[in-house]
């Protein structure tokens, strides 16, 4: 049996594969906007498993799969046997005999890794504590749409050294840009966990304004990610100076874009004037989740098709 390709981290694909996916996403988006029917995934089924909440990931995968002619089954921990301690290995064995593709949002990366090991079909990471590859796929695509190639550019990451930050590091190493990371002490990124060995693809700054200086893109995320709610109060205090406001945006290039994976908390990690301001592309970014994931599902199931 041929090796199954999974998408568990951004580093699972090569730069050439990303070039392909970005081209396909643009074409698939154009078809969608033109109401051009494109049903390459007729008779294919996607199972989605949510062990954490979601709005964008749920809607973008579900709508995207239907638009490609396929069907979707949605499970959550609470309404499946996962919530009653059925082993993830058994769940993977069973579900992957019935569907063609699985998307999972869960806690530790080892959980999705275990699922993939026991799955007969490709598995997509819809967010883990460690990584959020589908979001960075959409973010880089959004950057390219607005500004062209991201190679050689500077992305400022302001805030938590979380799943998004780790994934930005992986993308920087693969696609040839630099991430300027500024996090409060105790919330640093972990390049080792991200498997990032190229010291040239990220720089660490104590001061968020220094991280933003000259940046082409400024991006942030919630102070408290899902699963870390018990640390909410402590994080509120630690992150108080890591808010992307107009001063921080002024440190970046005048044409810098602002991105946020959403959901956002205005007045915490981002000021309303920034997220609702002219440099913000957060709604394009959210919409693009659907277009890039359609390209991703097409690629995992059909390979490099000319559609
Ligand atoms: N950005 C993102 O993944 O959003 P949801 O949590 O709503 O899926
Ligand atoms: N870092 C956030 C992203 C939400 C889409 C979280 O994991 O909750």
Structure description:
By secondary structure, the protein is of the alpha/beta class. Helices cover 40% and strands 13% of the residues. Helix 2 (56-67) crosses helix 12, helix 3 crosses helix 4 (109-117) and helix 5 crosses helix 12 (282-302). The protein has helices spanning 15-33, 56-67, 88-95, 109-117, 133-147, 163-175, 191-194, 208-212, 232-238, 246-251, 272-275, 282-302; strands at residues 45-50, 71-76, 101-105, 123-125, 154-158, 178-182, 202-204, 217-220, 257-260. Strand 1 (45-50), helix 2 and strand 2 (71-76) form a beta-alpha-beta unit. The model has no long low-confidence stretch (mean pLDDT 97). The two termini are 26 Å apart. The protein is built from 12 helices and 9 strands. It folds into 2 domains: 10-132 and 288-302, Rossmann fold, CATH 3.40.50.1370; 134-285, Rossmann fold (3-Layer(aba) Sandwich). The strands form 2 sheets. It has a 5-stranded parallel sheet with strand order 7-6-5-8-9. A 4-stranded parallel sheet has the order 2-1-3-4, sandwiched between helices. Bound molecules: phosphoric acid mono(formamide)ester and norvaline. Norvaline (NVA) is lined by residues 127, 162-164, 221-222, 225-226, 261.
């Amino acid at each position: 049996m041929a090796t199954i390709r999974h998408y568990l981290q951004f580093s699972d694909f090569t730069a050439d594969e990303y070039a392909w996916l970005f081209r396909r996403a643009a074409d698939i988006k154009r078809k969608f906007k033109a109401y051009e029917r494109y049903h390459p995934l007729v008779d294919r089924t996607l199972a989605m498993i949510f062990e954490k909440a979601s709005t964008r990931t749920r809607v973008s995968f579900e709508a995207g799969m239907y638009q490609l002619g396929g069907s979707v089954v949605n499970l959550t921990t609470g309404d499946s046997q996962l919530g009653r301690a059925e082993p993830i290995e058994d769940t993977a064995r069973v579900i992957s005999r019935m569907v063609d593709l699985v998307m999972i949002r869960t806690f530790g990366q080892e959980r999705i890794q275990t699922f993939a090991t026991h799955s007969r079909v490709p598995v997509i990471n819809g967010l883990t504590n460690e990584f959020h590859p589908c979001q960075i796929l959409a973010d880089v695509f959004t950057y390219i749409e607005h500004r062209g190639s991201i190679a050689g550019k500077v992305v400022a990451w302001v805030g938590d050294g979380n799943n998004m930050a780790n994934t930005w590091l992986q993308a920087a190493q693969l696609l040839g840009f630099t991430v300027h990371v500024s996090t409060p002490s105790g919330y640093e990124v972990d390049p080792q966990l991200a498997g990032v060995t190229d010291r040239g693809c990220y720089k660490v700054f104590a001061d968020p304004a220094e991280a933003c200086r000259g940046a082409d893109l400024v991006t942030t995320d919630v102070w408290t990610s899902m699963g870390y709610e018990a640390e909410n109060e402590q994080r509120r205090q630690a992150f108080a100076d890591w808010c992307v406001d107009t001063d921080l945006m002024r440190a970046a290039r005048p044409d810098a874009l602002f991105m946020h994976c959403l959901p956002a908390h205005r007045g915490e990690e981002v000021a309303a004037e920034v997220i609702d301001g002219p440099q913000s592309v957060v709604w394009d970014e959210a919409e693009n989740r659907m277009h890039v994931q359609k390209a991703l599902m097409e690629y995992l199931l059909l390979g490099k098709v000319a559609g």
